[in-house]
Amino acid sequence: MKPAPFDYYAPATIEEACQLLSDAGGGATLVAGGQTLMPLLALRMSQPFVLVDLNGIKALKGISRQAGRTRIGPITRQNEAIADATLNAAQPLIVTAVKHVGHHQTRNRGTIGGSIALGEPAAELPATAVALGASVEVRSTRGTRQIKADELYFGPYATALEPDEMITAIDVPEWPSGTVSVFREIAQRPGDFALVGLTGAVTIDNGRITRAGIAWFGMGPTPIKARQAESALIGQEIAALDAKAIAELAIADTAPFDDLHATAEYRRTVGRRVFTRALSEALDLRAAA
Amino acid sequence: MNAPEMLDTKTQTQAHAQATGYIGKRMARTEDARLLTGRGVYVDDVGLPGALQVAFHRSPIARGRIKSIDLSAARQLPGVYAVLTADDLARFKVDMLSFFLAAPVVPVPVLATDCVRHVGDPVAMVVAQDRYIAEDAAGLIVVDYDEEDPVVTLADAKTGPLVHPDADSNVAAATGNEDPDEDLEAQLANAPHLVTVEFEHQRISQSPMETRGVVSAPQGSGELTIYLSCQGPQLNARWFAQAFGMPQTAIRVISKDVGGSFGLKGQPWREEVAVVLASMLLKRPLKWIEDRLENLTSANQAREQEIKLRVAFDADGKLVASHADYGLNNGAYPQGADSNIAVMMFLWGAHKLPVFDFHARGWFTNTVGLAAYRGPWALESLAREVLLDRAARQIGLDPIEIRRRNLIRREDQPCTTPMGLELTDISPAECLDVLLEKIDVAAFRAEQAEARKQGRYLGLGFATYIEPTAGSTGIGVLMSESAHIRIEPTGKVSAVVSTHSQGHGTQTTMGQVIAERLGVRFEDVAVYEDDSSRGGYGSGAYGSRQAVAGGGACIRAADLLVDKIKRMAAYLLKVEPDAIVLGDSMIRALGDKEQVVSFRDLADIAYGEPERLPEGMDAGLEIQYRYRPPPITMTSAAHACIVEVDADTGFVKIKRWVTSEDCGNMINPAVVEGQIAGGLAQAIGEVLMEEVSFDARGNPTAVTYKDYMLPTIFDVPEFEYHHEASRPSIAEGGFRGVGEGGCIIGPPTLVNAIADALAPFGELKLEFPLTPSRLLAHIEGRREIAERAAPAESAPLPVPESARAASESASTVENLPAPSAPQEPVAASTAVQVDGEWKFVLSTPMGPQAFTGRMSTDGDQLTGVFIMNMDEAHFTGTVSGNQLKWDLKVTKPMKITLKYEAQIDGDKLTGKCKMGIFGSAKLVGERVST
């Protein structure tokens, strides 16, 4: 388990990094925290010709707020994010989700952008970005563009990023006051990828839901936005809400599969239950299932 | 905490030396400082000048012929020193051996020769300046295969093609009776209660934290120094010597720190042997460290089994008769073909069961081979304890009560089980008594009933077991252990012991024993067990033997040394030997005026002024002693576990786990409890999450720890330990082994708790591991049945037990093979030549045994002799045509009459030997001369 040979670069600026990606013509891979990449390199499942180390690029780090949005530097460590006062105030759902990523030790190295860029379908952060309506700022020598999180993922580890592009920021809209988080993860052991996961935010105004963003993880080949459930929730009066019926709509959007750890049937059955329970608890419904 | 009996050995100890109280003391381990601060010395920490690195090229297919191997690209890569295949190693004659040092039943190639037999089968090896380049080159090797359909599962093995074309069948080993015993079948059929469990157990990877590894350094003098991650340097040195046909004095195995083994590293296997041979070929030190991918796909594995256990009970829930049908996946190249006789020995080893019979087979498949795993026979406890709980529910008895009615208690012993096990001091029932003082079962049942009303499912599971430890019978490599204790001229104590730690802490425990018996301070004793050239033969860590066999050796050696010290000190101090007391590393002469000398003072004279010693006393202060413990030292235990199963998600939460064991006198309770905890952690993994899985083509599908799930600290609860049931064994020191127990009793304890929790959903479907997905499928399936039965009614109802029991017991006597037609004897007129010298091979449960013999005939009378290990066994029998029959009485490993039947065809003889309760073994013979 030793990586195949590669050239290693440690650029100091985003421009240099983009140039290296461009020069490599698709043969480069970015490394930040390395919590997924290093094992993949060691297993030779990933064999890039060029490894571009982002850890020396200061502009990729840090969290800031401006104009109702939160901007997260992609190489911000997961544990830095958990401890960050700005993020805790502006994006409590992201903090909750990050706390479920791996273990304390891996979160010391693992980054927010690394998890979002990888596109593991059973991971917490891609789904949370989808749920909150986040977008990623993407750079290359060809220019800068924004990709909406719900347009970023095509399949397991497959994203809309071109081989010469890198994420330079994660841009998350701040949800209004009156927003509650909905988050539930079922994993075989703490720190494992989810068998079933659910992440989202719901805004309540005067007993009525005005905004909803909910996504599944571990329930299909990508993070899956529960669009039917979201539509049904918006405009709903909390007092009249049937959480079980909403859960059915949410499950209808999923496409789970059988793997070594659980069947698709398991994921649907448990997904229905945890959705009902998580939504009921988040909305403080009396008729909690 | 300790039983009164524990004090007796303390008093005994005082007779020898002033008690320092080290034996029985909860002491911090000597090893821990270096292990916890990263200063341990594992194989990968060994760096030798000029060492090269090895990587293997392995088969990507489970079964096929090698058409061609192209090494050219690999050989051209800069930094590559050599690329070797089986052809390059063919110049060495290597006899691969089982752990018992027996020849394997099928040839085991070091590297694959003409065909590959499992995914991961090593085909070629690259030697390069570093591991990176070695792996690059391994990736450049091109092998062209003719792929064939593999034999993967036990079911495949029974119907599929031969894994080894030269073998008669895919049966690697068999014991027990192929033909059903009609009396037994009648008893099963007619009993008031017949209870059956039938299940498969998944394959397990031993998963040591340190993978396998070897550094082999040939010396110019034709000697080899081998740094090896193993379970005992002495036995491994002996293995290499015998396998290579080299003198053991030319092979030095060094194994300082080892990060776990659990049975995997009991002996060298193909990769380690290949590396040693390549180092001899290339005359360079070579290093190979198995990586985790290799460990999970190419290191031998364990536990893939199937069992059908049928048990008849009388109306009172007492055992009447039992039959077990058992299969074990041996893979392609097992480290000793095995049908696991120990499962049958201990299945009913602690119970009052009048009649038992079995049929057990090991099967070859195109999967990686079978090795040991902590408690290799543990399935007996899982099958029995799960069945007892099922029987209790079926008969309407409490699970504790059904055990009490059937367990052999202390007062019932001595007694002999139907399998010939002579019991003198087992105590599972007494352990259960202690356990029940710690758990308020009635209060739990009330809580359980209340919780069920709220849709919460609590369960309480029990299990008992006995464990044979420190065996010194029947297995030649496991007979005795040695301790060499030396008071150095400096007055400090060096001990070379044939124990070995892969985490066992024997440096600490053997040090405690020696310090106490010698009367020296613990920190004055250094224990060495890392180097085969330092001391005498011993097997290291095997079969829970170290406390008993190693501890006994340390006691005997220390006591002999104390005797010498006393005689010497008494002479020098002019008192009687009885007046000499050793303690706190000082030697005191009691009397009118107390005299005190140090060990250093005495050692100065013993080594430096031997003329001052008493007449006839040898110089120096050292003793070597080899201790053979009693044939088997039994350990017993009872455990209980409380779980909550979330019926919405299928998750199991272990809320409490209580243990009660009889492990005799304890050397160090912390080490005892550590052994129990470690075994239980493995048990939790085995029941809930671990599984080596394959697809239909024999590709392993759990190849990293993302998919092969080990329990983490979050999955393992705090255990409660109770030692009150302990009574000293008859072994020196009164110790009993405790190495494997947790791994044996843990699985049934946890399964029974889960089954109890889910009893409202009917009998638990035994599909291992019991993942949330499987448990939820069981729960939902039962819910659907219940809902269909009672639509729109209240909460799901339990499935009636009687209905289920009936459906299970309905399938009892099916599928029995028809008795085979008796063989027609060849007419007597055909002159058959029996007389002459013969070579025989008997396929015993311990591996094939080769021996010679002579047979002669007089009319229809046969006389003969078998010659084996300088021992002769004479027999008489009968001849009819080409059919021979004779009986042979043996006393080892137990008194038994072997019934032979054979037929002669020319100079060949084939037949079988009925070995009483051990079933039949195949006999083949070849005439050497007339």
Automatic annotation (TrEMBL), chain A:
It comes from the Bacteria. Keywords: FAD, Flavoprotein, Oxidoreductase. InterPro entries: CO_DH_flav_C (IPR005107), CO_DH_flav_C_dom_sf (IPR036683), Diverse_Substr_Oxidored (IPR051312), FAD-bd_PCMH (IPR016166), FAD-bd_PCMH-like_sf (IPR036318), FAD-bd_PCMH_sub1 (IPR016167), FAD-bd_PCMH_sub2 (IPR016169), Mopterin_DH_FAD-bd (IPR002346). GO terms for molecular function: FAD binding; oxidoreductase activity. Residues 1-177 form the FAD-binding PCMH-type domain. This is Xanthine dehydrogenase family protein subunit M.
